[in-house]
């Protein structure tokens, strides 16, 4: 499976209109596209203007077919009003493609909270990172209270870029885990694999087609 993830900050006060546009137009208009499996809209847990568009596709080719389609261009054109132009200092948006290399747990429901850790690894260290993720992160956190799902994603454009996503029943459960010794110890084990480009963000899943 492959993911298209669009991240950005909406204009102040534009969230309600952006959400209405996503629910009324984006989800129903695109769910019939060949290969599309899932769509979600996320809102920043600490920044109400921060958002994420998440879509899952059966193949990378089907994702790219959609991305270059007239339908997608029309939707993107309509969505421009909700964001600052890219040329402006606050025109912060990007779209990335990832392959889901590991997935465990249940589905993602509206109202769930996400911890998303993105980063770029040192050249050639992906296999070591993935091995640690599968053998330690997935196994160690299986019984953590409130955890519903884990995903490890690898960029389709940069083999050293990846994203770890965990889905939580509540923000309280997410924060409790983030502050725990378990999470702190695991982060220390892999920090030497990163090359300085790294961040962690929290989102609420406001809408999903599932």
TrEMBL record:
InterPro entries hit by this protein: ABM_dom, Dimeric_a/b-barrel
Alphabetized SUPFAM superfamilies for the sequence: Dimeric alpha+beta barrel
Coiled-coil parts of chain: none
Annotated ranges, domain ABM: 2-93, 113-203
Record-linked Gene3D superfamilies: 3.30.70.100
Name recorded for this polypeptide: ABM domain-containing protein
